[in-house]
Amino acid sequence: MVGLTTMLAALKNFFFFNVSPLVKKGRKKILTFEDLLPLPEELKLNRSLEVAPIDLSSQRTFISSLVGEQKKLVTRAWSFYVIGTLSSLSSPFFVNQFITRLTRLSEGSATYWEVLPIAVCIGLIGVMMGIGYQHNFYATLRANVLIVARLNRLIFEKALKLSQKARQNVNVGDVVNHMSTDTEALADVPMLIGDLGWATLLLIGSVSMLFYYLGWTALIAVAILAILTPVTRKIAKRFIHLEDEMMKKRDHRVTLMGQILQSMRLVKYYVWEEEISNQVSQVREEEVKARRSLAKVEMLSGLSFVAISTLVLFVALCVHVLRGEALTPALVLTCVSLFGLLQEPIGHLPGVLSRLINAWVSAKRIIGFLNSESVDGQVLSTNVQPIIFDHVFYQSEKGNFAFKDLSFSIAEGETVAIVGEVGSGKTTLLQLILQEIKPQSGAVSISRSTLGYVSQESYIMNATVLENLKMGKDVSEARVKEALYVTSMERDIKNLPGGLLTEIGEKGVNLSGGQKQRVSLGRCVIQDPDIVLLDDPLSAVDVNTEKALVNNLILGEWKKKTVIIATHRLEALAKFDRILFLEDGKVAALGTLSELLEQSESFKHFYSHHLEVHALEKDSELAASISGESDKTETRLMSDEDREEGAVKGSLYIDYIKALGGEGKHQRFIIAALVLGVLAISVFPLFNQWWLSWFSGHPTQITPIQGVMIYGLIALVSLIVQMSNQIFWLKRGIKAGVELHDRMLAAILRAPVRFFDTTPVGRLLQRFSRDLESVDIQLQWSFEAAVQALFQIVVSLSLIIVSVPLILVVIVPIGFVYWNLQILYRASAREAKRMDSIARSPRYAHFKETLGGLPVIRAYKKEAWFREQFFSHLEKSQQAFVNNFLLNRWFSIRIPMIGGLISGSTALCLIVSVYNGYLTAATAGLVILYSMSFWGALNWGIRILSDLESRMTSIERIRFMTRIPSEKRFVTSSPVVVDEAWPSEGRIHFSNVHARYDESLPEVVKGLDINIPPGAQVGIVGRTGAGKTTLFQMIYRFINVHKGKIEIDGVDIASIDLGTLRSRLAIIPQDPTLFMGTLRSNLDPYSRKSDEEIWKVLKDTGLEELVKGFPLGLLSAVSDGGANLSQGQRQLFCLARALLLNAKIIMLDEATASVDVVSDAKIQRVLRRELKGKTVLVIAHRLGTVADLDYLMVMNDGRLESFKAPNREFLEESSAELGLEEALEV
């Protein structure tokens, strides 16, 4: 009984009945991730195992190692491939026997019983082929999944170890491509190797059988194949080169789009949409040009194989006739069947070879990444001192900065401040301690096992506040509360609608700079490291918060820890154990504050300069009212991925068909030509084969050589039509891809800023990478193949029914079963494919997020936690992928049974028809050929239709992007055209202004009435959430006013063209954003300014000497995000970029938060000198930055509290109004 149960279970799995519950569920409802079948145990990731090394010495050994690890599955796949291939090879034999015996039956020399067994065998052939091929696919699927997991793990593990130098040379877009496109190309290698084996076996078998039927004439086929092999090899080499070129162009575009999408707020501030559109279009055109060249070679490759097989058959028949041999219907149709088999591998080989070439190129790219420089694991010393620098020499890669002979030590429990001018090496020193960079000589010794690191640019995950604080550590609620207290976050958390469970957007988009830094500090408290490294965490907070952090956290919570803090804020230096002063690449002074003031004149000058700047802050401080800003109060910020439900809408197909037809009056003609071309190439094979069967069955009406020559002419015309059709479809497919890309790009550039705040960059980038790649390369082919499959099914079915009407008795009920099967299948497969697509995005988004925080992750030793998160995303993605594949197998293994029933039934009906004289044996032979291929046409038709539906989901997602609501150029119904000089004065008037971020959200500005005089310099202060940054966003119309109005020089800004409005303003945002390129391209991306103007601004901002120190000056390279510059330097370059605009109204949003106070003072002097007569609005948390401006504007809860000149009485009054009396030092 146990044996029977086991056998039944095995049979159930063999025919994929275990997938049936999912199919039935998909018919009743829209499938969700909870409905999917669990991932088989063998395919689950073994998290307990260390990632095994792999041979990276060459592409060959790398690919061999990957495939060799799946040897068992590859062997299993190959064994099933042999079953399927041998079944295929048997079909010409049974066709020959069937026609031969039918001929004898028509002549009366054979009986029914002689033909009947052949009819049964014909029915069984399709079933055996289906079983063999489908289980081959299932085995290769499992190998595919395991290779994807293996490569993803290798890439992720390598990413966790990338050195700073490697990160500067690696683009995030490239690495995401390694994890997606390149990995998938390599995962297909086992299947492709199987395809090569199948092709070889089929070629050998076909040629052998041809030799059996045609004698030595068959050697002609081998000779022609051998002669033309060099041609195909040359085409393959050309394909490799062009494929490599296209992938480079695609990577360039994806990388560029990644930078643009991450900086869309900046793009809109500076009105760069048109220039960026042109820039992306140029890069896209280069990619499309490479795609066209590749498509031509791909088409030439495919056509050459079709031409070769046609030529071989033509020559073989000619030679056979010239030898005086007879051409009978049995022989001709057997040869047609054999050459059909021969054409399969020959026609399939170009695709296999091109994909193997892709895999070869992908292997090269992945090997290059895996061979990138890694950081060494943290090596602990046995020193008593936690940190020792022993004669350390370090020079940056570009040679523009160097540390010379650093030697010092930091004792247990010591709190040390690192100070110095911008660019003096404070961050570099911390990176040496973290072992993120290596000294060229000397040594940095660390003797404590755990480090905590708060980076200058806060690392914030796209998760809740609590998840960001805990970063995977299991801690008590009490410990979280302690962390909130010592980091002064209690009030902030209380103000968030979801408290600790409020979701922080990508890169902390809905938090202020100060809040982001305190989240990072809170994380460090919870992680409880031995050594704490802080990179300027106080710059982004107000004065009172700074005091609280110093007293409660640095000198309180961490009083027994070793703390090293790089800072520009010098007020609390007397409280630190020691101060390390950096100057000219060395430790200029080290000691207590009093010691440094006595011993170092340069430090004394540096410090006294700072005191002068901060004199007013010493006297009176506006404390927490001067702080960062976050007016966005949703508990959950990020939107879910867009997902359509049910069948792919017909409008999507219409959209794509229109894109194929292009714009203009010729659209319908083009679409008609595309359809007619596919119809022609579907009918020509039938016409060819009908002619062969007819003339071989009527030797008295036409000579054999004439018949063969006419066949050759028909074949030539067929080849020309096929070539023309392919060229036409390729051109239109590429044009459709270009049009859809352009529409999506235009929509993205017109989208409101809030869309980018609520949509992860990873999701948007996938639209411009994977989805666009699907449209560019696969969709056109799938669409053409689906139309062709439909025509082939109609042609085959028509031939069978017209020839044997009796078959309708079988076809009608079978058709009913088939129809219901495909409905069941497509309903489930469609949703499974959608989930497969959706499940990929979180994996790539998490990977990008990990790359963005490597120093922090490594410092806290959180690699395992991030790895586990990645594995969870990967398994979910693999689960959706496997379910989608299993649904395909469930359907595909049933179709051969239907096809076998049709073939067998057709054979029986043909026996009756020939016996009764209704059909000739020649016509019956042609019908049986088409009936045997009918199941394949059915299977192929539904599979390609399903594939088309899945590809159309890419169109679905792209169309969603093209329909994003655009920013309104005009809000009012009566637009106003302003002249070139507007605004000439710079007067700003807010009249009873009310605003909210979204219709569903509460107001963030409530009845604001204020008049800012022309040329006034206004400081804007207020607590977090007071509405400070919202003012800027309303002026830029990122947020539209729903009541009241804002006027500039008497003109309602809602009535002005949006581009015109923004182009007349200038802003220096809080987060410094630089693009990969040169210094000049970052300052003046579109060459609107002269070098003289740029150098003047560099001088004004104190960057002149720095830029002159670079070997290439303005043409010096800037890495992705400006990673090769310090945070302060990046901020100064952004300041210079804004000053180049020479706008009448300039806004600064905490623009000097990341520079020291001396540099800040210099910048303020520059701004006052250069911006004299201009209207300047300044949000700042340093009182020294705003205290001597013309006006101080105090915001509270979206309302104006005060607007006066900033004298002492006003400061005290404002502090009292905000409940901060205790914060004042009087």
TrEMBL record:
Name the UniProt record assigns to this protein: Multidrug ABC transporter ATP-binding protein
SMART domains on file: AAA (SM00382)
One Pfam family this sequence matches: ABC_membrane
GO cellular component: plasma membrane; vacuolar membrane
GO MF, any single term: ABC-type transporter activity
Localization, UniProt: Cell membrane; Vacuole membrane
Topology versus the membrane: Multi-pass membrane protein
Native source organism of the sequence: Bacteriovorax stolpii (Bdellovibrio stolpii)
InterPro entries registered for this protein in UniProt: AAA+_ATPase, ABC1_TM_dom, ABC1_TM_sf, ABC_transporter-like_ATP-bd, ABC_transporter-like_CS, ABC_transporter_C-like, ABCC_6TM_D1, ABCC_6TM_D2
Keywords linked to the UniProt accession: ATP-binding, Glycoprotein, Membrane, Nucleotide-binding, Repeat, Transmembrane, Transmembrane helix, Transport
Chief place where the protein resides: membrane
